[in-house]
Design a protein that fits this description.
Distance between the termini: 63 Å
Oligomer: single chain
Order of helices and strands: HHHHHH
């Protein structure tokens, strides 16, 4: 099955699973590296702090040991010079106090040096402790000799005290040199730790940068996948629907072959488009049919109007002819009536004269008979004219009825 045929839910689940598969190991690796770097840095910081504290304490104790030795020598020398006169006899007590503090300071310094695995330093502290006993005893005897016998008693012991002091200060100088070496080694150790920490931090930054780059690449790939799988088809669907709503039914749906919901949308759009095409075709056919029907109605109207105009022309012409015939017949009837009236008057005059002149009566009678015959002929011709006018009137009535029927048909056509 192709990826495009997967459902949207399946694609989302696949993308989430892929993100977990890719991101989770990166997150675990980065977290492990960060944790290791953090633990190493914490351990190094603790070691450095402890080493700094121990070194600082060792330096302080070493300085205190040096002070103890110097103070013992100073007090013994002072009391030797003053011989304890005029209340200046507390030098022995002061020297004794520093002499008692010296073993404590040496013990504390020895423990720190032992914890720091400074075997040479421990040994040198032991040498100083051993050298301090003859130094203190010789100085104490010298001071007592100066107090008791003055220079005569103390000067002979000055050389022994100087020798013991030289041995003591020689050990102290060596201890101070060791102290400087220890400080230098601690600085080198701290520098090594800093370098190591920088390397670990660089590794951490590299890991974080690599993980970030991988996540960015994955996010870019996921974004492109979302664009290709969802956004682009949805945008294309929106554009297609806008074109369809604008009346463009020639659009093509490229993603209708997909097997997911977007493919279902594409196939639905195709059905909608094809239905719209069919509706447009039917509408075009109906519009064409209506246009043809309207053209036919216009043609029928024109033909009916032409027929009506022709029939009206024929009827009007016939009416004009019949009117002329009737007018002629009426004129002829008027003439006949006028002539009959004149002849009747003549007959009446002749009848009146009949009593006067039989001959005239006979003649008038003949003329009367002739006049009556002529009147009869005129009346027959008038009857013929009237019959002809009546026939023409009936034809006119028939043509008017035909014209009315044609007008009704034209009304029917107009109503269509």
């Amino acid at each position: 099955m192709r990826l495009s045929d997967w459902s949207i839910r399946r694609k989302i689940l696949f993308g989430a699973a892929l993100m977990i598969i890719v991101v989770l190991p990166l997150a675990i690796v980065v977290d492990r590296i960060t944790s290791d770097i953090g633990a190493t840095a914490k351990s190094a910081l603790h070691e450095n702090q402890k080493a700094f504290h121990d070194t600082s304490e060792l330096i302080r104790l070493t300085k205190q040991i040096q002070i103890d030795v110097i103070q013992v020598q100073q007090w013994l020398t002072d009391i030797s010079a003053t011989r304890g006169l005029d209340g200046l006899n507390d030098g022995f007590d002061e020297a004794a106090g520093f002499a008692e503090q010296l073993p404590k300071d040496i013990a504390a310094a020895r423990q720190i040096a032992f914890d720091m695995s400074l075997d040479e330093y421990v040994a040198k502290l032991g040498a100083i402790e051993r050298a301090f006993a003859p130094f203190y005893e010789t100085g104490h005897k010298m001071a007592e000799a100066y107090v008791a016998d003055g220079p005569a008693g103390g000067n002979p012991l000055m050389g022994d005290f100087d020798g013991a002091a030289e041995a003591m200060y020689g050990n102290l100088e060596q201890l101070l040199e060791m102290q400087q070496d220890i400080v230098a080694r601690q600085q080198d150790r701290i520098a090594d730790h800093v370098i190591s920490f920088e390397a670990l931090d660089s590794l951490r930054q590299t890991a974080v940068a690599g993980a970030a780059a991988a996540m960015i690449l994955f996010a870019a790939a996921a974004g492109w996948g979302i664009w290709a799988a969802f956004a682009r088809p949805i945008i294309s669907t929106s554009k297609i629907m806008n074109r369809l709503s604008a009346g463009d039914l020639d659009v093509e749906v490229a993603f209708a072959g997909r097997g997911d919901e977007i493919g279902d949308m594409g196939r639905s759009i195709i059905v909608f488009r094809d239905t719209a095409r069919e509706q447009r075709r039917l509408a075009d056919e109906e519009e064409g049919r209506q246009a043809r029907a309207e053209a036919e109605r216009i043609t029928l109207r024109k033909e009916a109007a032409a027929d009506l105009q022709r029939m009206l022309g024929e009827t009007i012409g016939a009416l004009e002819v019949n009117s002329r015939h009737m007018s002629d017949a009426a004129t002829r009837l008027t003439d006949i009536a006028r002539q009959s009236s004149e002849r009747t008057d003549i007959v009446a005059g002749a009848s009146e004269e009949a009593s006067q002149n039989v001959q005239l009566v006979a003649t008038a009678t003949d003329e009367l008979v002739a006049s009556i015959g002529e009147i009869t002929d005129q009346v027959g011709r008038a009857t013929t004219v009237v019959d002809l006018a009546t026939a023409n009137a009936e034809k006119s009535n028939h043509r008017v009825a035909t014209l009315a029927e044609a007008a009704n048909r034209i009304g029917d056509v107009v109503s269509l």
